[in-house]
Design brief:
The complex is a heterodimer.
Chain A: H1 2-24, E1 41-44, E2 47-50, H2 51-61, H3 63-66, H4 105-114, H5 129-139, H6 145-148, H7 165-177, H8 181-184, H9 223-232, H10 248-261, H11 268-274, H12 277-286
Antiparallel strand pairs in A: 1-2
Helix pairs in contact in A: 2-5, 4-5, 7-10, 9-10, 10-11
Chain B: H1 2-20, E1 29-38, H2 53-56, E2 70-71, E3 75-76, E4 80-85, E5 97-102, E6 105-107, E7 110-114, E8 119-123, E9 129-133, E10 143-145, E11 152-154, E12 160-165, E13 173-179, E14 184-186, E15 192-198, E16 201-209, E17 213-221, E18 226-234
Parallel strand pairs in B: 1-18, 5-8, 7-13
Antiparallel strand pairs in B: 1-15, 2-3, 4-14, 4-16, 5-6, 8-11, 9-10, 9-12, 12-13, 16-17
Classes of the chains: A mainly alpha, B mainly beta.
């Protein structure tokens, strides 16, 4: 009895050592492609969204642009610029997470509710909170990235410090030092030296944000949204992340300065800026009365 | 009787462990050769860097674009030659692969390194660049790198050929070749490549050029011989 056990043990040990060798020879072959999950959940605040009810909503409201396969190739897509988001690629513009990582459920939820200014993506705030949470869950069923990766780490955002003139002036220096003007232009009109050659990650021409046009940028209109835009980068576009080169306190200075570029929209930053002779002169030079031909003759 | 079992197990364990940790014979076999083209490649136009004077002034005459780099004897530079099948995956080396922005160009134009190996990106120019690799399988990120800032450290976990660009300077193009094993070479000025230290086996050798695509050949190594192969790409005139 003991002999048999011993033999079995020896054979077991031997085979346990040999078998891994056989599989070692298989290394170097491609692992099978991961498929997306067909049942996902989302967690937004107190809400839990589910992908099954989200599916019904998607095929009522979303697929016309985003397509039946979620890849942005809906019926309307051919007529749209910018093109609808491709959920299969899962590269998202408006996130609170580090560049190259997935957004949080809250980011997606906010994007659906807010819509995207200057695009054909409307604000879906008319849908209930639960509906939008369900849609977030369904969107996550299109890409295998939601299976293989966790959502990225949200960047740390310190509380906004008090607005001071020194903050705006430091922001002005950062705008020069970080060479934002190369794409956005010295006045933030989106007409910098590199602006005309910009293409997005699908090789489609794309324009940099024009600060003077409107204060509602694509990812939201609050100072915190503006902070997140340049600290996380706008993935899929030429706009990079500055998180590695701008300290969080300095980032707020830049936010304050950027508000002064939006001279058509009243803000505390603009008011403070215009209270100085230098700021007043800069803004006055920009505020030309437009003539019908746009020749910009000053009044 | 018991001793037989012990000896048998001991011998089996020795055999198994020697197979498990068997490194290829350090001498190993070698695959070497040259990459050439036939036909007429398109002319590489000089790069116009006038929008970035700090870089333009570094060149007495504007440098040519680098998507097809040729040499005397119809050789092709910057071709990645690697073992695409037949070799096991290798763990990433601890040294970083360095990618430098200098003179508003990427040096090297094609950087080959391994999955999970550290990629270190350095900006030696007086102007800001943004590093924007555009993968399809790996994560796409985009980071700004002003002058005087520390190197960016990243890595990729899937094998892929990744085009790299700078959005601020639209003429800047480079490539990352992220590979699964340590058997690779990038052809230089003489168009040659050498893949040493190959254990006996049947290998598929692939050559990749960013405009001309890739080609593969099968090579069998039986001992420590050197096998010479060549790759010939059909040049595209435009």
């Amino acid at each position: 009895m003991r002999k048999m056990l011993r033999t079995k043990f020896c054979l077991f040990v031997t085979s346990a050592l040999i078998l891994p060798i056989a599989s070692y020879a298989q290394l170097g072959e491609q692992a099978p492609a991961v498929k997306p999950s067909s049942h996902m959940e989302s967690h937004v605040g107190n809400l839990t969204g589910h992908s099954e009810p989200g599916r019904e909503l998607y095929f009522r409201y979303c697929w016309g642009c985003h397509g039946p396969h979620g890849d942005g190739n809906g019926e309307n897509a051919a007529y749209l610029n910018p093109t609808p988001r491709n959920f299969v690629a899962a590269v998202f513009k408006c996130r609170s997470t580090i560049t190259g990582t997935l957004p949080t459920d809250q980011d997606l939820y906010n994007s659906i509710g807010r819509g995207f200014n200057f695009t054909n993506m409307p604000s879906w705030i008319a849908l209930t909170d639960q509906d939008r949470a369900n849609l977030v869950a369904f969107i996550k069923t299109f890409s295998p990235r939601w299976v293989t990766e966790k959502p990225g780490t949200p960047i740390p955002i310190p509380p906004e410090p008090k607005l001071t003139l020194a903050s705006i002036q430091h922001g002005q220096q950062l705008f020069q030092k970080l060479e934002c003007w190369k794409c956005h232009g010295q006045e933030g009109r989106g007409d910098g030296p590199s602006a005309s050659t910009l293409t997005d990650s699908n090789d489609q021409p794309i324009r940099p944000y024009n600060f003077t046009a409107d204060n509602r940028s694509k990812c939201g209109s609050t100072n915190q949204d503006l902070y997140k835009i340049f600290m996380t980068g706008v993935d899929g576009t030429p706009m990079p992340s500055f998180a590695d080169v701008v300290k969080p306190e300095e980032a707020w200075d830049l936010v304050h300065f950027l508000r002064t570029l939006q001279y058509n929209n009243p803000s505390p930053e603009l008011t403070l800026w215009e209270s100085t002779p230098e700021g007043k002169a800069i803004v006055a030079a920009k505020r030309v009365d437009q003539t019908n031909t746009g020749s910009g003759e000053k009044p | 009787m018991q001793w037989k079992q012990v000896v048998f197990t001991g011998v089996a364990m020795l055999a198994a462990s020697s197979l498990a940790i068997a490194k290829p014979n350090p001498a190993g076999g070698t695959i070497t050769g040259k990459v050439t083209y036939e036909g007429t490649p398109k002319k590489m136009r000089p790069i116009d860097m006038s929008k970035e004077p700090s870089c333009a002034k570094m060149y007495p005459t504007p440098p040519p674009a680098e998507s097809v780099v040729t040499g005397p004897g119809n050789i092709l530079q910057d071709v990645v030659v690697f073992i695409s099948a037949g070799a096991p995956d290798d763990p990433a080396p601890s040294t970083a692969a360095v990618f430098t922005q200098k003179g508003c160009r990427y040096i090297p134009h094609v950087l080959a390194f391994q999955v999970n190996q550290e990629l270190k990106i350095v900006n030696e120019d007086q102007t800001s660049h943004n590093i924007h690799p555009m993968p399809k399988l790996n994560r796409e990120w985009n980071k700004s790198q002003p002058p005087g800032t520390p190197p960016i450290s990243e890595k990729y976990d899937k094998a892929e050929f990744i085009p790299v660009k700078c959005n601020v300077h639209p003429w800047m193009h480079g490539n990352f070749a992220v590979l699964k094993n340590s058997h690779y070479a990038v052809t230089g000025e003489n168009g040659t490549f050498t893949l040493p230290r190959l254990a006996p086996g049947k290998y598929t050798v692939t050559a990749w050029q960013e405009e001309y695509g890739d080609q593969s050949q099968e090579v069998t190594i039986t001992g420590s011989e050197t096998k010479t192969i060549s790759f010939v790409f059909k040049a595209k005139p435009y």
